[in-house]
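Protein record

Derive tokens from sequence
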Amino acid sequence: MDIGDRMNEQNTIRIDLHCHSSSSDGSATPQELAAACAAAGVRYAAITDHDTLAGLDAFESACERSGIGFIAGVELSALLEGREIHLLCYGFDRADTAFAGMIGELRRPRDPGSASIYRRPAISPQALMARVHQAGGVVLLAHP
């Protein structure tokens, strides 16, 4: 390793802005994700569970205990020309009731009594982005 490699390594800040917990389709709890981030030397992290904010509080607390900078995140589903797409949203106000209500609609089961089968999103990317922006967040396309 030459001096240039060592300087680049010293100036590297590890971040993880796209991880899923057991609150959506991941296998680790928010606390386990924060511990894994800490073990990997991650300095800033965002949990981006699918269409839910359920793991954010636990992840934020675990990040704080581990010395990791927390960024509020979520991966939301939208419908574009008949296809489902996913949008990564960051930095929004979790207390915004209109934003939380939109996410609640995305998580509503398609069949009464079946909490694990969700209906296809009916919201357009434009409407979703407008709601995220109103809540103070930014939006990026996931999986382009």
About this structure: The CA atoms of residues 130 and 139 lie 10 Å apart.
